Amino acid sequence: MPPRRVITGRSQEPRKRFAEELRLLRTERGESLRKLGEVLGWDWSLFGKMESGQTLGSPEVVQALDQHYGTPGLLLALWELAVGDPTQFKEQYRRYMVLEAEAVNLWHFGVSTVHGLLQTEGYAYEVLALGGAKGQELDQQVEARTGRRELLEGEDAPPLRALLAEAVLRTPLRDEAVWRKQLEYLMEVSGRPNITLQVLPQGVGLHGLASTDVMFLRLLDGKTVAYTENAHRGELIEENSSVERLQRAYDAMRDLALSPAESRKFILRMLEEVPCEPST
């Protein structure tokens, strides 16, 4: 597979960036719009309209393009930004989404919810609905979020180490069946070679990230950036000393967390506590 693609230095307006990337990927392969349509099975005029910014296409089309170009999750991340009202996305979050798609290594700590890259469809629906999305808008946001999981799939997928505060696993969804599927999915992904999942027990007490979710992204140039979130805001942090301070807090928690094997056992215990669906 091709190396992870750097896309910085281009248009900062989400729709324009998305269209620009589509055109560049196709022209770099030397494909015509008609040839692209034949290969993927859609009318070639759709791709022309997407490249000119007249339409964004559907998540299904964008996922097919990501697969075709060997850019797992990149185009879908750009699409997710483009489908929303630009005023809803702060520049820092737009930049974070692009950097996430470029990252060669990821470290995450979740104090409140399961990270989007590890969410099932049902979990994503409940979380995003809490933000006010509904109807078609909610459907699109969920498709985009779950589609981003492709970043962690395939031979060139970056490694992810995810620390989950115990409280995340003790905060179930309203629908027990959906919650069970989320726990089962965590069990599944924790067995992948590129994903390390650890649980931070409540008994460790207060720590340096007690009220903050954080994702660290290691980029191709060796630089590491951090994106922090709390209940009210998110912030992209690129200044070295600030990132290093957060990393020290993260490393301290990693040393206190359960081992990957112990964490899998913990999740399994949580799973066993969820009532099974009655047999018919």
Automatic annotation (TrEMBL):
SUPFAM superfamilies: lambda repressor-like DNA-binding domains
The HTH cro/C1-type domain, residue ranges: 22-75
Gene3D superfamilies in UniProt: lambda repressor-like DNA-binding domains (1.10.260.40)
Pfam families according to UniProt: DUF5753, HTH_31
Record's protein name: Helix-turn-helix transcriptional regulator
Lineage, uppermost ranks: Bacteria, Bacillati, Actinomycetota, Actinomycetes, Kitasatosporales
